[in-house]
Design brief:
single chain; mainly alpha; 4 helices; rod-shaped
Length: 132
C-alpha cells in the first residue's frame, strides 16, 4: 500500500479532499431527506399530515378494546382462565401505549406546523426586505 507524499506547506490536496469539494452533497441531502416537506413549499392536506398518528391511535384503541375483552373473559369462561389472565393485561398495556403515543404525537405535529408557518413567514419577510 503506497501512501502519496504530503507537501510540507499543505498546498497540495489529496484526491479524497478534491472529491469532497466537487460532490453535490447539498442536493443529495435534500433528495434523501426523510421529511421532504421541509425542503419543498408545497402544502399538504390534513390527512397527509395526521395520517400516521391517526393510524397509531386507531390501532391502539382496537388493541386496547381487545385487551379489555380478553381480560373480562375469565369472568364468563372457566376453561382457559390462566391464558386469559396472562394475555389480557399484555394487550391492555400494548393498546394503551399505542393510544397514548398517538395522542401525544398529534399536538407535537400541530406545534411543528405552527413553527413552520412562522419560519416561512419570517423568511418571506427577510427576502422581501433584503432582495430589493
Amino acid at each position: 500500500m503506497e501512501i502519496p507524499p504530503k507537501s510540507p506547506d499543505g498546498s497540495e490536496k489529496s484526491p479524497q479532499s478534491k472529491e469532497l469539494i466537487t460532490s453535490n452533497t447539498g442536493s443529495t441531502l435534500c433528495m434523501s431527506s426523510r421529511s421532504e416537506s421541509v425542503w419543498t413549499s408545497a402544502s399538504r392536506s390534513k390527512w397527509d399530515i395526521y395520517r400516521k398518528p391517526v393510524i397509531v391511535v386507531s390501532v391502539g384503541a382496537v388493541i386496547f378494546v381487545f385487551g379489555v375483552i380478553i381480560t373480562s373473559l375469565p369472568c364468563f369462561l372457566t376453561e382457559y382462565k390462566a391464558v386469559y389472565k396472562m394475555c389480557g393485561p399484555a394487550f391492555l398495556s400494548l393498546g394503551l401505549m399505542l393510544l397514548v403515543c398517538g395522542l401525544v404525537w398529534i399536538p407535537i405535529i400541530r406545534k411543528k406546523q405552527k413553527q413552520r408557518q412562522k419560519s416561512q413567514f419570517l423568511q418571506s419577510l427577510k427576502s422581501f426586505f433584503f432582495n430589493r
